[in-house]
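User: Before I run my own analysis I want an independent prediction to cross-check against. Here's the chain; please return only the structure tokens and, at the end, one sentence I can use as a sanity check.
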Amino acid sequence: MSIRKEFQKIILPLIKASPILIALVAITIFAAKKGVAYLPQEYQSKGAIKINNLNSSQTGFDIFQNKENNTPMQNETFLTEVEIFKSKDLIKKTLQQLDWELTLHRVGEIRQTELYQNRPFQIEYKDVAAKGYDREFHLVYKGNNDFHYLINPEQDSSSHALIQVGKWATLETIQFKLTWNDAYLDKNPQSLNYGDHFVFKINSIDEQVAEVTAKQLFVRPVEKDISIIRIYYQHELPLKAKEFVDALMHEYMEECRSYKEQMSDETIVYLDRQIEEATQKLRTSESSLAYFRTKNHIVNTRQETETTLKEITQLDLQNIDFEMQKAELTNLYHHLTTGNSLHDYAPNFKALADPIFQQSYLKIQALELEKKDLLVKYLPESPEVNHVDSKVKSLRVFINESVRTTLDNLKTRKQEVENSIQANNDKINTYPEKEKQLVSLERAVSLNENMYNYLAQKRTELAISRSSNLYPHKIIEVANLPKELVAPNKPLIIGLCVFLVLSLGIILTYIVDYFMASVKAKEDIEDAIQHPILGTVWKNKKKQFESYEIVSDVVANMDKIIPNDTNTGKLLIVSSMTPGEGKSYVCTNLAQALAATGKKVLLIDMDIRRPSLHEEWAIENIGGVGAILEKRSTLAATIHKTGENNLDLIPAGELLTGNKALLFSDRANGLIQDMRHHYDFVIVDSAPIGIVPDAIPLMQDSSANLFVLRLGHTKRRSLSSIETSLKEWDIPNMHLVLNDFVPSRKYQYYYN
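Assistant: Structure tokens:
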């Protein structure tokens, strides 16, 4: 494809349609800006919190911690905290802290706008019935401290009750009182006008939680391996968006703090009981040892018994350790087998050192929270709840098996320790009786002393941990007060509207160009039609050219296509595909030009359906071709003088019988052939062959057939059908003539 064709098919339609496209874009931008102003507005606030879930933060809780493995490690269940932020329980507690139960909106023509701190009046309420929640109460200001409460705002706006500012109003479902917000009204006196319409609603906590979910609450970790969570919340009021994010982070930290305090308090109570028992045992054992030494005058024991004593003491401590672990695991096993929920139970993970168990336990807790949320929306028999429940049951079976296996292992290890203690005791039994008793008493003292020290140390660690930040999360980014709208996205909406309208406009431009674009140059025709172009006929709208100038190009080229060695006159049949191409204009100017050169020319109008040649010379359309074909007149009687030298005319006339078949008869062909013996040129203005094929038989014997195409009128899309028709008709000596050709300005300047 040449550059000219590319320009004509791709660029030129856009250039022509550019004013319309620019106008459409301008209108679209204006309409989009107006439309965006009526859409609900949303502001987004964001905050970030660092989650400290390292093992080192649990100091004091791991009573049986492994001294060899106390390196702080990142908890692999960090992503569970993200789900906690989205849990309905945490959102519910956050909303209870914010006290957003009452909302007040100003009703506009298009949408409602919530009023928060900029309320012209305050609303107190009490005795709200169940039906009073989540219901809209419509108020219209009527001046003079009076409001109208609309009873049926959707059906009858005239039905109302009078509400006076400062007085309690009692309705079926609520009692409320309006009081002026004087501080705000003093600064904004125009904020309350006669006829202003307001709506207030008492929102239930469930409705508030559902609204938070619908208001686009997003919680996501920065990275999987980085314990930082970002919280995003959208609301039509920027202040509410900020307050919610801050409150959610603080409520999460408070929940963790209170939960850890509860765990600490329960553990301290347990340790206090154990310390008290250990203290009594230590005092008893020390008294017994002192009494025995005094009674038997014993100062030192043999060195040989010291090693055995230490070993027995360590074994006894280990045995007690196993006993305490067994007790902890037995409680956990009992809790699991009785089917109790794991959400509110915090086991000692050090009692079960298996990390898979720990992850499974935390996953059960997350699934139980998910099940609890699902039960708010679905029935217990629903597939969503059953799916989560099946996961919980599978994991509980795994944990039950893990606990039972650990208990069995503890039993085996405890038995081994007891066997070792028995062996050492048997060894001590070989000592003399006094030494044996002394060793036994010293062992009891040492055992009770170590136990007391161990428990006291744990209690001290736990007390220190409780008094400090037990779960030291940190808000690293306080929620911002948004200033720019996040929804609707004005540039995006306007850009999208402009893109759609511009795309549609461009598509329509090419569609219109396809159906309406006309032939503009020779090249357009040469590409589509294979027949040669004989010449061009000038456009002479202002009558500034002579006839010979208009058709000079055609006349100059006729000698190349019409032989001069014939004894009869030359027959030229002029036609077109459709009306309006200018074939009569071409015939008239061609005949006048040939006549001006001295040629004797006869012009025959055979377009009987729409004759027009007679109008050029003000000749009546009487007789003519129609009369000759119907034998109502002689040939000589139908020939009219035009008043121009060498130029005669046979008008079309009328077929009174209506028999159009006469146009195909031998009489019609004979008429034309006879005239060739009397004239140098016989020019026939035929009907458009694309409409009626009247002239096709005559074209078989003509000297040249001229097919007229009109620049600026003939549609480009019709060229292919013209080419197909011309091939089907197989008309010999067919040449194209381009009508309405505009000569260059340079020619007009120099030769006019």
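Sanity check: Residues 3-39+490-516 form one domain.
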